[in-house]
Design goal:
By secondary structure, this protein is an alpha+beta fold. It is built from 16 helices and twelve strands.
Length: 449
């Protein structure tokens, strides 16, 4: 018997022994005098058992059928074994039309060992930080490396852009690596969708921060230079705890997004990137919060498309030789020897290596026309005869021949940017129209129209 029933038994016994009146027992038990009389009659007939609630040990009148419970647990074990109660409840309602309360489902999962309540987990310590006031004031960015496709495809990285004020996902993009080109492509998508934020907040990854103390170059990465040209501030956190919002968002994405892609049969980066806008909208509908102030701090993008193409490029400087040539990433570039270009001997030019794989050479505000000699590619002897200016290039190639023979597999310069994102962009363009990537393959039709 519980404490309430013990108190009731003592009061009824006192009434039977005429130590207290029925009115006094009613006041003690907070019930009516008539209810005291009923309990007194039941006690005289059945004893102490008569004071126990009559429904004890009997099933509730609104108890859910056991078949429904077994069916739910069977679905959870077969299709959603690693789902949390909230997400599992959503899927049972949306996909299976099973309507049970969230708390009931949680208790079933706890009893079946599918879920461990938070109260029984090891507590975690978080350092709280107030959110920013407005949307677009501070955007946290991070790369989340994970087995996103659960071995249906190789491991890859998800680039996450989340607003600090609202917890709203602003942009997501899957990529094979976490490189400068990948961040450039994702940031350009962000600008096209939302405009320029006040600042980006990142960790001290090499894409964002120059970590070498004795670095002779300017302490600004290629991605940092892009943001500087766009007038966007870049702030690097001193610790991972400082990026708490994006870290928690990554954990939620690694839970929900992985399972959503499993249910939808998404197996590749291309398929995932195509479906990400729908997931972003659903995520923000569930988890985003209103900002403290309604003002949007994003600024409009005033740069033209050509200016953006130049800004979102890997930029390096090279000095022209007397023959108007220079080397970049083990490729020799030959500037067209026009009368105007003849004055550029020993001058410094800027190389624009764009994420789509195209190269531009700029001197001041002028783009220079050029030809390419790739000493890692196969050389066509007929082309050597036709191009008289390749003589100087061949001497340079011969000087490096011994070094090339020692390498079983020839590769680009290690100092050059990773070109995974470029190769993916080229493959996508080639799938649309191969002539756009290889214009030399174009053959005009001789048929009369």
């Amino acid at each position: 018997m519980n404490d309430k029933e013990i108190l009731r038994l003592g009061a009824i016994r006192d009434v039977c022994a005429k130590r207290i009146r029925r009115v006094d027992a009613a006041r003690i038990l907070s019930i009516s005098v008539r209810q005291v009389q009923r309990l007194l009659t039941r006690f005289r007939q059945l004893g102490a058992v008569g004071l126990v609630h009559q429904r004890r040990g009997k099933p509730s009148s609104n108890k859910i059928c056991d078949d429904v419970r077994y069916h739910c647990l069977k679905l959870l074990n077969e299709k959603y074994p690693d789902f949390g109660p909230t997400l599992a409840h959503e899927k049972l309602v949306e996909l299976h039309d099973i309507h049970v309360s969230l708390e009931t489902l949680r208790q079933w999962m706890i009893a079946d060992g599918l879920w461990v309540p938070h109260a029984k987990r090891k507590p975690k310590i978080y350092q709280p930080r107030n959110r920013r006031d407005c949307l677009g004031e501070l955007i946290q960015i991070d790369g989340s490396h994970h087995n996103w496709f659960e071995d249906r495809s190789p491991h890859c990285c998800l680039l996450v852009f989340i607003d600090d004020a609202t917890g709203k996902l602003m942009n997501l993009r899957f990529s094979e690596t976490e490189s400068a080109f990948d961040y450039m492509a994702a940031t350009r998508e962000y600008l096209e969708q939302h405009g320029k934020p006040t600042a980006f907040y990142s960790d001290r990854h090499a894409v964002f921060h120059v970590s070498k103390r004795d670095a002779k170059t300017e302490r600004l990465t290629q991605f940092g230079r892009v943001l500087h040209d766009l007038n966007i501030e870049l702030i690097c956190a001193n610790s991972s705890q400082a990026k708490g919002r994006v870290e928690r968002a990554n954990k939620t994405l690694q839970d929900r997004l992985v399972k959503e892609m499993r249910l939808q049969g998404i197996d590749t980066i291309e398929q995932a990137n195509a479906r990400l806008p729908d997931f972003i909208a659903d995520f923000n509908r569930r988890f985003a919060k209103p900002a403290k102030y309604p003002k949007d701090m994003h600024r409009s993008v005033r740069e033209s498309i050509d200016e953006l193409d130049d800004i979102f490029a890997w930029q390096e400087l090279r000095k022209l030789s007397k023959s108007l040539t220079f080397q970049y990433d083990k490729v020799v570039y030959l500037i067209d020897p026009t009368e105007e270009n003849q004055r550029l001997v020993n001058q410094v030019v800027k190389i624009l290596d764009r994420p789509d794989g195209t190269i531009a050479i700029q001197y001041g505000h002028r783009k220079l026309t050029f030809k390419v000699f790739d000493k890692l590619a196969d050389v066509d002897q007929g082309q050597i005869v036709d191009n008289k200016r390749l003589g100087a290039v061949l001497k340079f190639a011969q000087a490096k021949q011994q070094e090339f023979e020692q390498q079983q597999k020839r590769g680009r310069s290690k100092k050059a940017p990773k070109r995974t994102a470029q190769q993916r962009a080229i493959r996508q363009l080639e799938a649309l129209n191969p002539v756009l990537v290889h214009p030399e393959q174009f053959k005009a039709s001789r048929k009369k129209t």
